[in-house]
Design a protein that fits this description.
Elements lengths: L12 H12 L4 E2 L2 E2 L1 H8 L17 H9 L4 E5 L13 E4 L2 H7 L1 H4 L3 E6 L18 H8 L20 H19 E11 L4 H12 L4 E7 L17 E6 L9 E2 L6 E3 L2 E7 L1 E2 L16 E8 L5 E4 L8 E3 L10 E2 L3 H6 L11 E5 L5 E7 L3 E2 L4 E2 L6 H12 L10 H11 L5 E4 L6 H13 L4 E6 L9 H4 L5 H20 L1 H4 L1 E3 L5 E3 L5 E7 L12 H6 L13 H12 L7 E5 L5 E5 L4 E4 L6 H14 L5 E4 L7 H13 L7 E3 L1
Parallel strand pairs: 4-22, 4-25, 5-6, 5-21, 7-20, 21-22, 28-29, 29-30
Antiparallel strand pairs: 1-2, 3-25, 6-8, 7-8, 9-19, 10-11, 11-18, 12-16, 13-14, 13-15, 17-18, 23-24, 26-27, 27-28
Helix pairs in contact: 3-7, 4-7, 7-8, 11-12, 12-14, 18-19
Length: 657
């Protein structure tokens, strides 16, 4: 194939799902279509078609599923002048409707996001601004954000008097969560902040989309200890739902501040009794956890602990079985094989199981616990987790109170710490004041991580009476972008500008820190749309020779990044411009793996320059792309193709758009 079809649409998720189904059940495919009767027969008893089965339904759910699978007709246009360290950064900020953006990210970031955190509208009656249009959501986006004139689809609140209070919220959040799940890695997590208004509904749709078995926890951060007292009960908390993508996901434990008082050659430790204190566990129902230890009282360390064995022999003559305080049989926490792995007979210093005599007689068996971490608790009541701390920090950073109720920086840092690996990509598609970006930058600076962020925010207009508008911020995106820049400056002042971009680990290794971000904005595709109206026929025919929009402020860079999205490459892919003439250049993507020429006229000279560049870059992969209408004739196109083939380009790696 030598033609890349750029139709202005994002990846078709319906086709993706059908292809996945074909791969799992190839025998249900008949002439390219799914035979659902055969699929039903294969699944047998696993199909539940009982009308009275448990199911969560609301008005518009089918449409919400449909819109999540309908390709976007938009694109993401680079805003280099609003970015920081464009050429080197891996962080991304996107201004646009998150539904459309999530669609556009499907091909490039499917199964690549390590963690998602969102703080969506809580549906309190005055915070609902997303109103999706099932026909043309890009046009709806322009109208909703005031970029075009229209008499409908304005930003508005969602009040109970509308009659579809919960339905509207569900229809907003459901398709976004379906798309978000596709982006998560298999071991990834999603964290969602919410309050009482929609918690029950959110739990139901999360159970449906992510699966009940992948529910991890419902955390209660204490956001306001004084309580919001406008109801009969003063509410002091919010909720943080945590779901995993699969059973392969494991949260990181928090670093503990505990100081060990006992030490051996392996380091510090504390002792924990090995007996299982669950009263429901006993010898009758857990027989594998009931067995004797044998104690040698003549081998004792400096702390009064004695050596143990699982075998009765010389010196090891005192038997100990698990008994509760009433002398009744219970069980151990470990099975016999695990206990055996942790005993070094005759070496009490390195043995992980020891015994100590009780003051009342008898013996206890202990494990040496060396853990320096602690499990996450279900209530987060630390002062630094409060909303007022988020407000205080943002006021200090920006100079004025320009955003209501921002999340605490330490709250988001904790979420990023427990839910990611040091190299994870973190997605927040309700970005607000960009606390997530600030948290990622700050956490990376603390622990030397290489986490990256992708933030998405609707450019909701600031109220003209607000402090933000008076300070020159027209939209929430203006606030978020400026907050990231100011947080970079704040980190720089804290650690010093020289140390901001480089960090020396305890091991002595120096790593480069990413303290930049690329800004993109959602817009209509660079591909011209065919008009079927008779009055527009001549205009469409006249422009048919060039598929790309060239008016307004569109540039080849816009086309290039639409191509990058279409090919499924990350938005942070390395792009280098090699000037050919005063007005044209060859774009080298990923250090020569892909070369793109988007000028109006292509010639043999361009092919020869590509060959020279390929030889200089010495890339193992080599693909080239030209604009199809830039060849003055078929013979010129054929000559360029043959010239490149003679230089080593594979025939299948020559593309036109």
């Amino acid at each position: 194939m030598d033609y890349i079809e750029l139709d202005g649409k994002s990846q078709d998720m319906t086709k993706v799902n059908i292809e996945a189904l074909k791969e799992i059940f190839p025998d249900v495919v008949e002439e390219g279509k799914i035979d659902f009767d055969k699929l039903r027969a294969i699944l047998g008893d696993e199909i539940d078609d009982n009308d009275e089965r448990y199911n969560f339904i609301w008005h518009g759910k089918n449409q919400a599923i449909h819109i999540s699978q309908t390709p976007s007709i938009g694109t993401l246009r680079p805003c280099i002048d609003r970015s920081v360290d464009w050429d080197s950064t891996k962080n991304i900020y996107i201004e646009g409707d998150n539904l459309e953006v999530l669609k556009l990210l499907q091909k490039s970031y499917s199964n690549k996001i390590g963690m998602i955190y969102i703080d969506p509208p809580y549906n309190t009656g005055n915070d609902f601004v997303y109103s999706d249009n099932y026909q043309d959501n890009i046009q709806n986006y322009f109208e909703m954000t005031g970029q075009t004139d229209s008499e409908g689809n304005k930003i508005s609140s969602n009040v109970e008097s509308d009659g579809r209070y919960h339905t509207n919220w569900l229809n907003m959040i459901y398709p976004r969560l379906r798309l978000a799940r596709n982006l998560l890695r298999k071991d990834g997590f999603i964290f969602i902040s919410i309050d009482d208004n929609e918690l029950p509904n959110l739990r139901k749709i999360m159970d449906e989309i992510f699966g009940e078995t992948n529910f991890i926890a419902q955390i209660m951060p204490i956001s306001n200890p004084g309580g919001r007292d406008y109801n009969q009960v003063a509410i002091t908390h919010e909720y943080l739902l945590i779901y995993s993508k699969s059973s392969e996901s494991n949260l990181n434990e928090l670093i503990s501040n505990k100081k060990f008082e006992m030490f051996d050659s392996l380091g510090g430790y504390e002792t924990r009794e090995l007996r299982n204190r669950n009263p429901k566990f006993m010898r009758t129902n857990r027989p594998n956890l009931f067995y004797p230890f044998y104690i040698n009282p003549s081998i004792m360390d400096n702390y009064g602990y004695c050596a143990v064995s699982l075998t009765k022999m010389d010196g090891y003559c005192i038997e100990a079985v698990p008994l509760n305080s009433q002398g009744q049989e219970s069980v151990w926490r470990w099975g016999k094989s695990k206990a055996s792995e942790n005993i070094l007979e005759g070496d009490i210093d390195r043995s992980q199981i020891v015994a100590k005599k009780k003051s009342t007689g008898g013996w206890n068996i202990y494990e040496k616990n060396r853990r320096s971490t602690t499990k996450i608790k279900s209530i987060w009541d630390e002062t630094e987790m409060r909303t007022e701390e988020g407000t205080r920090l943002l006021r200090s950073l920006m100079g004025k109170t320009i955003f209501d109720h921002p999340k605490s920086l330490d709250l988001i840092k904790r979420i990023c710490y427990i839910g990611t690996q040091p190299d994870s990509i973190i997605l927040d598609f309700f970005a607000g004041s960009s606390t997530t970006a600030h948290a990622v930058l700050d956490l990376n600076r603390e622990d030397g991580g290489k986490r990256q962020f992708i933030l998405v925010q609707l450019p909701e207009k600031c109220n003209e009476q607000s402090e933000a508008y008076k300070e020159g911020y027209n939209t929430i995106c203006d606030i978020g972008i400026d907050r990231i820049k100011k947080s970079i400056s704040s980190i720089s002042s804290k650690y010093g500008s020289a140390a901001l971009k480089q960090m020396t680990l305890d091991s002595g290794i120096v790593i480069n820190q990413d303290v930049g971000f690329r800004v993109f904005r959602l817009d209509s595709s660079n591909i011209k749309k065919w008009s079927g109206k008779f009055e527009d026929l001549q205009k469409s025919l006249d422009s048919f020779g060039d598929n790309f929009i060239t008016d307004n402020d569109r540039t080849n860079i816009d086309i290039l990044y639409e191509l990058i999205l279409k090919l499924g490459l990350p938005l942070t892919t390395s792009v280098t411009e090699y000037q050919v003439t005063d007005t044209s250049c060859i774009y080298s993507i990923s250090f020569g793996a892909l070369m793109v020429y988007l000028d109006e006229t292509s010639s043999i000279d361009i092919a020869e320059k590509m060959i020279k560049l390929h030889n200089e870059l010495e890339s193992d992969i080599w693909k080239v792309v030209f604009k199809d209408n830039a060849f003055l004739s078929d013979s010129i196109k054929a000559n360029i193709k043959e010239t490149l083939k003679a230089a080593g380009l594979d025939e299948d790696d020559f593309f036109t758009i």
